[in-house]
Amino acid sequence: MTHYKLNSSSLKELSARVSVPKYNRENVKSGIVHVGVGGFHRAHEAMYLDQLLHDDSNSNWGICGIALLNFDQKIYNTLKEQDGLYTLVVKELDGTLTKRVIGSIVEYLFAPENPKAVIEKMANPEVKIISLTITEGGYNINEATGEFNLNNPQIIQDSKNPENPTTIFGYLTQTLKLRKEQSAGAITILSCDNIEGNGDVTKKMLLSYIKFAQPDLLDWIKENVSFPNSMVDRITPATMPTDISELKEVSGIEDQWPVVCESFQQWVIEDEFIAGRPNLESVGVQFVKNVAPFEKMKLGLLNAGHSVVGILGSLVGYSTIDEAISDPAIQTFLKNYLDFEVTPILRDLDGMDLTAYKEMLIKRFSNIYIKDQIDRICSETSAKMPKFILPTVFEQLKSNKNISHASFIIAAWAIYSLGFNEKKEAINIKDALAEKLFEKAKIAQTYPTAFLELEEVFGTLSQSEEFNTAFSKAYQKITSFGVKKCLEEMNSN
Ligand code: CS2
Description:
NAD(P)-bd_dom_sf; alpha/beta; NAD
C-alpha cells in the first residue's frame, strides 16, 4: 500500500481509505481561537466543528489553534507540517476503529515564538469565541483561599511586561485591551476544562488579574465579554507509538500525531455567547440554562472515579485504567464510593438516569482498546484533587455524612506520593507540586495528617477532626495490610 504523509495535498488520495473533510478548507475563517490544542481539544471541540463545517453556511467557524507554552512546540510543528490536519481514531467498546481526518483547525500559532501575532489574532473582529483547555492547574487558583494567586512569578512578570505575555491571563488581557481600542466587538471566553463553574472561575480569575494589571479595562469587559459555563467529556488517552504505526500500516497514513479516543462524547453549555455562536445543537451539543448540576455530576463521578482508580491502581502496580478497573476489589470500591459518597450530593439532574450514567462509566473505564494510562490520570493530581474529590468531601462533612472512601483515597495518595508502588517499583509522578507532596508524604510516615497540611491543595480540610481521624486510620491500615486487603475488607462491610 502506498503511504501518504498527511497534509492538504494528500487528502484526495486518502479519501479512498478514510473519511476526510469534504468542505473547502480554504474558504474557512477562524471564528474561534482555541488555546491548548492537545489531544482532548482535537477529540472534542475540533471534532464537533469539523462536523459543522460540512455545511457551507458554517464556514465562519473554523479554528485557529494556539500552542501557548514552550512545551507545546511539538504539537505546533506537527500542525504546521500537516496543514492543521490530523486523524481522529475512535475506539469503540468492541474494538472497532473509526478513522476520520479532521480539518477544522485551519490556522495555528506558537505563542512563545510570536506573542504579538497571537494577541492580534485573538483581537481580530472575525473572532467571536476564545475557547480554552489549559488544564485544571492553568487557572492560577490558590486553593487555600479560592482566590487568584498574585504571587506567581509568571503573573508578576506578565504584569510588568504586558506586551510579551507568557500566561493565559496576560494574553487575554492584552487581547481585550486591543479589542477595546480597535472596537473589534464583543467576545465569548469559553472554558472547556474540568472545573466546577469553569466559566465563572475563568471570569473571576481573569478579572482579578485585570483589576491588578489593567483596571481601566473592567467597564468594557462588563459589557463586552461573556463566560459561559460548560461541561465537556470524552476520554482521550495519550497517543502511543503503536497508534501511529497502526495508522501507517493499516491505512497508509503517515500522521505524526493522530488522536485516539473513546466513542462517548458529551458537551453541555450555557447559551451565553455574547458575540454569537455556531449552530452546535445540530451536531449534538446540549444547551442548558444551568450547567452546574451536570458539571458536578461529571467531575464527581467520572473525573473523581478516574483519580480513584488511578491512585489505587498505581499503588497496586497496574499501568492502565482498564487493567485496574478489572480488579474486582478496585471496581467494587469505586462503585461504593460513587453510590454512597458522591451520589447523595448530586441534585437537580432532571431527566438524568444516574444509575445508567454510573454503569456506562464503568464500561467506559473498562474499554480495553483505550488503554488509558494511569500516568496520565495521576498527572497533576494536586490540581485535580480540589476539583474532582474535595468538593464532595466538604459537602459530605458539612452534613455529617460518610467520608470513609474519600479519606481512604487521600491516604492512598499520601503513600503514592512517596514514589513507590506496593511492588517496590518507582512511580513516575508528574505533578507541579511533586516536591512539596513528597516532603509532606515523608513526614506523614510518622504523623499521617501532616499530609493534609498542604493548604494549597486541601484548603481547610485539616481542620476537620472527623476527616483527620478517618484519614489516619486509613493510612495506618494501608501501611499495615496493603491496599488490596484493605479494599477487600471495606467492600465486604
Ligand atoms: C481525566 C480526564 O485528567 C483526568 O484525570 O479524568 O482527562 C478525563 O479523561 C476527561 O475529562 C474525560 O472527559
